[in-house]
Amino acid sequence: MSIPDTGPPGRERRFTDLFTATYPAVLRFAERRVQPSHAEDIVSEVFMVAWRRLDDVPAGPDDARAWLFGIARLTLLASIRGERKRQALAVRISEDPTAGGPDGALEPDLVARRVDLARAWSRLPAVHQEALALTVWDGLDAPRAAQVLGISPVAYRLRLSRARKALRAHARALPEAPAARPATATPRRSST
């Protein structure tokens, strides 16, 4: 089934190109914020908005992706209230399938660092999580991330700086796990 082309020639082609180029990124964006079963529903709503407002979609691929992320974010916010809202916006770093080594095996040090990072991450407010996620996982620069959040690039840079500082502070505040340390030489007592 195809979408009826009711607009000027090339409208359907432009939408198809937009969909093909951005669908995987928009789906990943949604999957990090909601359960995978709900992510596709969010993405379908995003592309329905994109179809209706195709003339408003920026021409550049990165700008279009950021615009779609903004629509996805607004769709999420409209569908989730209270505590569910916070859970939907939280990036699930502990479920990241790319966390293993090159052969897929988990290394103990990597697991320990990820657990510490996940614990520090969970202590961040949703606003800090979102700022970090837009840069780290979604790969947006400040102007595009600011567009997603509906704030100025300067405000986004400030928010990102505060989020990084808070994450470092939470990570440093975690109790250190006992590490296997090399035995140090202890002074011997003289038997005299």
TrEMBL record:
GO biological process annotation, one example: DNA-templated transcription initiation
Sections of the chain in a coiled coil: none
Start-end of Low complexity biased regions: 172-192
Domain of life: Bacteria
SUPFAM superfamilies given in the database record: Sigma2 domain of RNA polymerase sigma factors, Sigma3 and sigma4 domains of RNA polymerase sigma factors
Family listed: Belongs to the sigma-70 factor family. ECF subfamily.
Record-given protein name: DNA-directed RNA polymerase sigma-70 factor
Lineage start: Bacteria, Bacillati, Actinomycetota, Actinomycetes, Streptosporangiales
The encoding gene: rpoE_27
